[in-house]
């Protein structure tokens, strides 16, 4: 897995981001530990996903129906079949749940998927950069320190039970910029001719077998 440890919010908040599993289909796990009292507050992280990785909105809707996760995607219409070079960035707002073993700890996970990339020359992998997630708090019944938190432009209710506007806050004192790398397998450009030839040969062979079977066993009037 890939791990980032970041100190944020006046050096009092720890954020950990992990990519679990291998291959094109991963789970993005985010953990936040607050050193201050967040009673009555909703905790979320906002992160920008590069074009090479996406969250499937249909899969996300199914998970949310079963209360397995809660997140907001922007834009909410995504072409899950598009390759990396025809896709664009996504913004994921992921709501975190309190950890029962730690009163100041919050976590959430969401499935993410890597897109296919153009064949590369001289390398068998593409590198995707995942930025550090931004910690957000929404405290409808308490106040946050003005020295550590500032209003954030997030047009989303604090929870699924609330439909009215709620003011989210982000950390003022952000740590030094940190990022993680996700390596995705890609084809080699020098293999283009071989791949095209094998694809054409396989297509022709399969088409011939289907036509032969249709002529032998088909009933034509």
Folded structure, characterized:
The structure is a single chain. This protein has 221 residues and is an alpha+beta fold. The protein has two domains: 174 residues; 33 residues. 16% of the residues lie in helices and 38% in strands. The protein has two helices and 14 strands; from the N terminus they run E-E-E-E-E-H-E-E-E-E-E-E-E-E-E-H. The strands form three sheets. Strands 1, 2, 3, 5, 8 and 9 form a six-stranded antiparallel β-sheet that branches. A six-stranded antiparallel β-sheet has the order 6-7-4-11-13-12, covered by helices on one side. The chain has a two-stranded antiparallel ribbon with strand order 10-14. A hairpin with a 4-residue loop joins strand 1 and strand 2. The longest helix has 26 residues. 21% of the residues are buried. The N terminus is likely disordered.
Mean pLDDT over the full residue set = 78
- Rg is 23 Å
- The DSSP helix count reads 2
Helicity range: 10-25%
Task: Sum up the overall morphology in one term.
Answer: elongated
Query: What is the end-to-end distance?
Result: 61 Å
* Spans of at least 5 consecutive residues with low confidence: 1-9
Count of separate structural domains? 2
What structural class should be given to the helix and strand makeup?
Answer: alpha+beta
Main sheet overview? 6 strands, antiparallel
Strand/helix succession: EEEEEHEEEEEEEEEH
% residues in beta strands:
35-45%
Number of strands: 14
């Amino acid at each position: 897995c890939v791990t980032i440890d970041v100190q944020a919010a006046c050096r009092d908040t720890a954020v950990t981001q992990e990519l679990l599993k291998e291959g094109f289909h991963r789970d993005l796990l985010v953990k936040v530990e607050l050193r201050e009292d967040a009673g009555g507050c909703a905790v979320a992280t906002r992160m920008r996903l590069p074009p090479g990785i996406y969250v499937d909105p249909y899969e996300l809707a199914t998970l949310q129906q079963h209360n397995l996760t809660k997140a907001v995607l922007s834009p909410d219409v995504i072409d899950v079949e598009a390759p990396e070079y025809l896709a664009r960035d996504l913004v994921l707002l992921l709501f975190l749940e309190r950890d029962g073993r730690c009163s100041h700890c919050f976590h959430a996970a969401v499935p993410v998927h890597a897109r296919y990339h153009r064949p590369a020359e001289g390398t068998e992998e593409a590198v995707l950069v995942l930025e550090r997630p931004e910690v957000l708090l929404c405290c409808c019944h308490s106040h946050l320190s003005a020295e550590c938190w500032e209003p954030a432009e997030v047009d989303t209710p604090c929870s699924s039970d609330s439909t009215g506007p709620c003011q989210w806050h982000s950390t003022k004192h952000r740590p030094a910029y940190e990022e993680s790398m996700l390596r995705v397998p890609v084809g080699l450009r020098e293999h283009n001719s071989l791949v095209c030839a094998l694809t054409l040969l396989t297509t022709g062979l399969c088409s011939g077998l289907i036509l032969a079977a249709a002529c032998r066993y088909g009933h034509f009037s």
